[in-house]
C-alpha cells in the first residue's frame, strides 16, 4: 500500500463533512473535540456499544457505516483501526483522507516544545518520568497521548503549558504527518503484528514517528541491537543512550525504579529534556530534587507486597518477551519464580527461554493458558538447563501458579508476574489480571 499522510490540522475540518470512525477512548476524545468545534460527525464503529450518542445514531461499519464514511470529506479514525485495512485504501481511492486525532493536533502544535516518546515497551515510563521531572523543575507540563489524556480533548486539564510529553503508539505513529524536533525510542521488539501486517512493517511504522517532516534528533536506546540495525529509519541525528551511562549518578535514586532498563529510561528522559533546552536538566542536584515524589506506574515492575519474606512483583503490563526479560534482569542474585502466559498472539518465546538460561540465580517458570504450552515448548526446544534453572510447570490458572510460585520462592525469593502476553481471554485487561495477582498473594498470607 502506498503510504499517504494527509497534512491536516483540526482547524482544517471546519465546514467539512466529517466521519468519526471508532468510538473507544480516543474516539470519544475526537467526538468531544469535534462537538466543541460545532461539528456533528457521522458516527461509525465496528461494534457499536449503543445505537446512539447524544441523540445521534451510531452506524456499524458493515451495516451502512462505511457507506456513510464514503460520503464524508474527511474521516477521523481511532488508533485501533488499522491503516492497512482495505476500507482505508478504498476511502483514499475515493479522495477521502483518513486521519487520526493526534496527527491533527501535531500539525498545529508548537512542536519545539513537544517531545514524542515511542517504543515497544518503556514509553509510558519515560513519558511519566519526563513529565514528573519537568513539573518538579517548575514547568507546566502535560503528559498524554497513548498514556492517557489526548492533548486536544476539551476535557483535558487546561493550560497554558510550557511543554508537552506525548506517548505515541505504533498505531498513532501512522497518523503523524509531522514530527517534533526531539523524539525518543525506548525499545523495539515484535508486537501488534496483525494490525501492521508483519514485523518489519511494525518496525517501520513504530520508528516513523522519528522521521516525519520537522524531525531533527532521535534519543534512542543504544542497548537495542534491533534499533541500532534500523538507525536509517530514525531522525537526521541520533543520540544513543545506554543503561551504563552516567556511572555513579545519584539523581535517579529518588525515582525508586527497578532494573537497568528503567535506569536507561530515566537517562532517556533527561536527554530529551536537555535537547529541548531545559537547562536545569544538566544539573544533578536540581534533577535529584525534581525526582522526589515520583510514583512508578502501576503494574510496571511494581512491588505490591511481602509474604513471609517473599516479595511479590506485579509486572502485568508486560505483554511480550522484551519487558519480561528486562524484569528478570532487575533482580540479579535473587531467586525468582516467574509467572508467564496469557492470550496467545503467536509470538516467538525462544528469546524468553534464552533470557532465563542466561540467569545465574535460580529461576522457576510457571505458565498460564493460552500461550503456556507454547512457552513450555520453547523451553524444551532450546534445551534450557543448568543448576540455576528449576524447570517449567504448566498451571491451569493464576491462583494455582501463584501458590506454587510462593511455595518454591520461600524463604526469601521473588514471585514475579511478568506474563509476556496480553491478558484478554481470562481477564478484562492488565488491571484485572493485576488485581487477581494481588488477591492470590493475600491468599498465600492467609494460608
Task: Write up what this structure looks like.
The chain has 447 residues and is α/β, with parallel strands linked by helices. It has 16 helices and 18 strands. The strands form 3 sheets. Strands 3-4-2-1-5-6 form a 6-stranded mixed beta sheet. A 6-stranded parallel beta sheet has the order 8-9-7-10-11-12, with helices on one face. The longest helix has 17 residues, at 430-446. It is globular, with a radius of gyration of 23 Å.
Main β-sheet, in a few words?
6 strands, mixed
Class of secondary structure makeup: alpha/beta
- By DSSP, the count of extended strands is 18
- Which oligomeric state applies? single chain
| Termini Cα gap | 58 Å
Portion of residues within helices = 25-40%
Rg, alpha carbons: 23 Å
Major β-sheet strand ordering: 3-4-2-1-5-6
Separate helix tally: 16
Mass-distribution shape: globular
Poorly predicted runs are none
Proportion of beta-strand residues: 15-25%
Mean pLDDT reading: 95
